[in-house]
Amino acid sequence: MSEFGGPSALGVGGDGGSSEEYYGLDPNDEEDPDGDSSDEESGSESSGHNSEQISTRSLSGSVLDYPMENGRRYCGWGEGSYFMPNDEAEQTRLSIVHQIHLALLSSELTAAPIKDDIGRILDVGTGIGEWAIAMAEKYPHAEVIGTDLSAIQPDQVPENVFFEIDDAEQEWTYTQSFDLIHMRDLSGSFENWNYIYEQAFKHLRPGGYLEVRDFQSSQWMTEVPDSPSTKFARVLKSASDKAGRPIGVSHIKKNKARQAGFIDIQLGYLALPLGPWPQDPKEKWIGKMWLISVLEGLEATALRLFTAQKGWTPEDVRELCNQVGEQLTSSAGGSFSQV
After folding, report:
1. pTM reported for the whole predicted model
2. Do strands 72-73 and 68-69 pair parallel, antiparallel, or not at all (unpaired)?
3. Looking at residue 16, what is its pLDDT?
4. Are strands 72-73 and 204-213 parallel, antiparallel or unpaired?
């Protein structure tokens, strides 16, 4: 996972299955704490929320017309550019993943050292909106905006949280800066992560933070040679690369943060057990939930990519996913992913 902040930035992100933290100083400070520039590239009146202050897009029929493909429902934005479904099964999986993130951070919602009087928060790719809602409840005086390609967030929410249909790959037109911009589990979502980071830096106030978090699952996928999981990982990489939106953590790199304007960059890594094999009760629960999420996410991740980019039939995709699932449930002992 990773976090980047505006004029100042915090990033917690992962590379090779780990999580990275980025946090920056005032942009006028020329000191680079890392001392190394050779990193490899890899509504309401009280809230002040109105259409003139933030980027909003009208909800056209095509945006809310969610197409069905091979038994799964997808967002109507971008003519199939986003590969994950938005149906109830996926929403349930997203809720599980949210709980995993909370457990990994010891019930904290962010690793950024934000203050209690934080003013504006942006959650890019908010999904079902659980993180944005929780932040709005924890910081009732803050204005929290959650954006996504799909309108799958609940209607009953705190009065200081607002959800919008928006595409982060288009120009950000916010006229007020944010104290914290949050991005979580958006691997494979964007063609140009450099642009995303540049826009985030532009829309963060001096002293603000950007947090980016992503899972790296390549370790368990490839640790058994010539296995279904190894084949799955190979085809997934090929398909996402062909789509121009690589799945992985190559977007979480120090030099990408520097190129966008961030100065102080810190990287952090968290190990994530796969399966209920740990002895520690908390780790056992995390491992169990992560295994459930992985099993539920196999088809969700692969179905559109494999059929559209590699010419697979839905039946062949599901057969491989079943084989990977059987492999994981029979051997998920001692494996780790990283965040």
Report:
1. 0.83
2. antiparallel
3. 29
4. unpaired
